[in-house]
Amino acid sequence: MNVTALDWGIIAAFFIISLLIGLFTAKSAGSSAKEFFLSGRNMPWWLLGVSMVATTFSADTPNLVTDIVRKNGVAGNWAWWAFLLTGMLTVFVYAKLWRRSEATTDLEFYEMRYSGKGAAFLRAFRAIYLGVFFNVVIMATVSLAAIKIGGVMLGLSPVQTLLIASIVTVVYSSLGGLKGVLLTDFFQFFIAMIGSFGAAYYILDLPEIGSLNNLLAHEVVSTKLDFIPDFSDPNLYIPLFIMPIAIQWWATWYPGAEPGGGGYIAQRMLSAKDEKNAIGATLFFNIAHYALRPWPWILVALASLVIYPNISDLQAAFPHIPVDKLGDDLAYPAMLTFLPTGLIGIVLASLIAAVMSTLSTHLNWGSSYVVNDFYLRFVKPDASDKQLVAVGRISTVVLMVLSAVLALALSSALDAFNILLQIGAGTGLIFILRWFWWRINAYTEIWAMAISFVVAIFFEVINPKVNWILIPENQAYLKLIYSVSITTVGWMLVTFLTKPEKDEVLLSFYRKVKPAAFGWKKVLDRYPSEKQEQGTLPKEIGLMLTGTVMIYSALFSTGFFIYGNTLGGAIAAVIALVGGVVILTSWKKMS
């Protein structure tokens, strides 16, 4: 691939603009910890929504989608499409609750909802566990994608790639805080969208592909096009569709798709102007994430099956790539090497944007845990804003270094995705129920976290060696069923065997966030003067389901039109439009 001076000029301009944004916001970000991590809690829905989309548009996402499509076809994407359900639950049920909490981070929630040593332990442990260890794993998968892109498209070594990406990202993240991240995300989002759509359009016109119709008719591709897996084969439809849609979305914890909201999604909601803007931000995020972006990646993935049908073909085309970095996910950057001068510069800038937007968000989010939930809470409660910002900037650098080191040891984004799902299996239901069920306590979450981790280690590390539980290779989904079942039974037992939180703690939380009263009735009935908020939960669940149908309809409407099924596309588009009118009308009425 020939990267010309024009391409390098586009990339250089992108870096310069990103750095200038960081410098522009540095002064305001450094004025206080609230400014550095929450942008003064005054952000509009459109900026927050675009930032969420940009963050999930990481460089490993098209690689992951390519890996999925090459292995399991378009239907394999239900592994992440199913998370739309929890996304819409967050939009209409949890966004306003998070904003009402007025927490600085979602971990501060623990000492609002629970009390005593258990709550303090949860906050401190998860600050380090999620903010450092778990967060480093996520950033390492993004850095791994950067390594593969840099190696295939620019001939850079892994170390060279990481040095370039890390230095620029750390500079603007540590200087500009969340506001710098949000503004840079906004700029990077449009670069990323132009790059992905432009790449798909050009690749479909390659001589080896011929046209969209030729691609869809190709013998290797035609068997990969179904939206839903073949229901005559349980080895396909159970792991690819039933498991994600029936269990995975509510039972597992995964960054950006946490049941009940959380992580950097919660950070964005907490920084919104008000509840309405928090809802609008998460709604826009889910629409763009699931309905707008997937098809350019899917089309490139399908085209890669024509040009690089096997991993051996990738190895032959890129012999300088280390063997441990070879995989189906390498096919996405491999396809981009066919792009012409000018477009390759835009696409490279878009991929760099994808890497940097995700890394910058995770750096700021992880740093907020380290500063607010560990350093300020347990190390130096009287720290000044200047000290907190300084610790935030130092932790940003440390997190980037740790993730870069781990990235050099990883080989596949899909492997990391599956491991992370396994570690969080069985904990998701707690994050959904803890807002609405008074009986859940700190020990519920502590034991759920411990059990799910031990079970994940057993199934991923120990059991393959000892075979105590026989799991056929074509039934790997049984691991998730076992993990969810064991973890859920474990934390339910702990919940009923331990004391509930004190009434004053429960009442304080209830008064602040005002959840629907039905799950708090046993406590509230002891205090006749306490107002019981009936809430609008049934309506919110109805909007969640309406929004889910709307977005899936929009996603598949696009797919139908691409496949040449005009009638199917039109019907799905009408359904999506009707759902959109209902959602928009309801959102405008929300306070």
TrEMBL record:
Chief location bin: membrane
Subcellular location: Membrane
InterPro entries registered for this protein in UniProt: Na/Glc_symporter_sf, Na/solute_symporter
Membrane-spanning residues: 6-24, 45-66, 78-95, 127-147, 153-174, 186-204, 294-311, 331-355, 390-410, 416-437, 446-464, 476-497, 541-563, 569-587
Taxonomic superkingdom: Bacteria
Membrane-protein topology: Multi-pass membrane protein
Name of the protein: Na+:solute symporter
Source organism per UniProt: Algoriphagus aestuariicola
Lineage start: Bacteria, Pseudomonadati, Bacteroidota, Cytophagia, Cytophagales
